[in-house]
Request: fold
Amino acid sequence: MVNLELYRVFYAVAKCGSLTKAAQELFISQPAVSQAVKQLENQLGVQLFNRTHNGMELSSVGGKLIFRQIEEALSLIDSAENSLKELNNTASGTIRIGATDSIFAHVLADKLALFNEKYPAVKLELISSTSPYTVSQLKDGKCDVAFINLPLEDKEVRFYGTVKHLNDIFVAGKKFENLKGEVVSLNRLHELPLIMIERNTVFRSALTKYADTLGARFEPDIEVANWDLMIKLAVKGMGVGCLPREYCLKELEKGELFELNVQPPLPARGVGIALAKYVQPSFAVREFIAMFEKI
Reply:
């Protein structure tokens, strides 16, 4: 007969890499954890862990072979239990949402306010970072839903859909008004002082790959960590910025910035939703995602 609790102990030890930490997570004693591991190993007839001076490591011929299947099975069981708990369709608890500062400001802010008004009992924990790091947080179980810049590929997460389309453009302030009305080729842009977002971002990676296909090369004079700073520097005339049009609409409407007629134009991108691959989202998370389905 399968003892589910033994597999829960196995999974906790594998994730924590330590009998002590697993015991703390499971709220049982360390000897109980050690005994459960030995009992499961005896039942299966194989050694699941290698005991090292650094802790517990999954054995290559035992633990590593079953870890993913056990993780998925426990996730399915937890999801089934959560579904029963949520039969009354009440949203509660905490939603941990991961996104960049810009996505929070330009894509999620209004939805967060509406969701809070509808479900005031749900606590919203906002985790701000780059899209690649946000995905790693999602995979590590440190956030429940991620809103990320696309394109970003990772087979260990589920991509749910696109919630906003982004059109990347080049903008400049009054100092560069001589470029208004001119057609500027991508290859010519390297002659201008460029302001770009830092390298470890989805945007820069996508831009570099696209430029490579056309034999163009972008070497920015200034690199910034966020779009707001780029906009301010571009308005001050420090260079030509490259960013989503949707993030600088106010400055374009006020005439503080203008869009360069760059040919060919940059390909459109988007903001997408990502979920952990083997975790069923809670009712609260599903309700939050549903707010974007009509977009």
Notes: The chain has a mean pLDDT of 89. DSSP finds ten helices and 14 strands in the chain.
